[in-house]
């Protein structure tokens, strides 16, 4: 029976493409939209945030999120994998307790504690965001590695695979979808939380929000919040697309490994 033709997705139906386009258009176009915001907020003498280029704040915000998320992913994944090994199982309750403490502390409190130690700027924000993004990655790593079905592990042992090969060829590939879900949560949370890093001098999209709140300028708050929201939606759509591709690839790879 002939296979039905596979239709390639139309670019005009691509939500990620349109969200990214809207994000970049606003970041670069908002400074030139004074007439629009003057009409929307006639009582405000300066309705558009012009103290710093919004496009520059966007890239600084994104850089802070990427760096802090990379640290959280590296530490969370390494700790999660180590806690599933026989030598590391005793440390699992301690790791989960430390990660939970980092998650339950409000980011503002972590910033307040970090500033006296490391000063103002990006460094206290990096510490706070890394700690805040650690728990989703750690929990997802633990859940993913332990979700591998027992028959799969028994088949791998019956094939004579060593514990290291079972981990790299069966457990990690099959755990990737759950792990990616944890990474997705960690990054999305960090995108929103990074906005408050402007309170300690870090340059992020939270700057117009903080300035707007302190100066009762609703237009500034709206401009910063819309950009942060579009960045979070873009990241979520990108992770959704990656998860769908990863689901198919990992299942296929692990299945071939065990069948061979």
From TrEMBL:
Pfam families: BPD_transp_1. Residues 58-239 form the ABC transmembrane type-1 domain. The chain crosses the membrane at residues 62-82, 94-119, 174-200, 220-239. Coiled coil: none annotated. Keywords: Membrane, Transmembrane, Transmembrane helix, Transport. It is found in: Cell membrane. It is a multi-pass membrane protein. CDD domains: TM_PBP2. PROSITE patterns: ABC_TM1. Its main location: membrane. InterPro entries: ABC_transp_perm/SBD (IPR051204), MetI-like (IPR000515), MetI-like_sf (IPR035906). Belongs to the binding-protein-dependent transport system permease family. This is ABC transporter permease. The lineage of its organism: Bacteria, Pseudomonadati, Pseudomonadota, Betaproteobacteria, Burkholderiales.
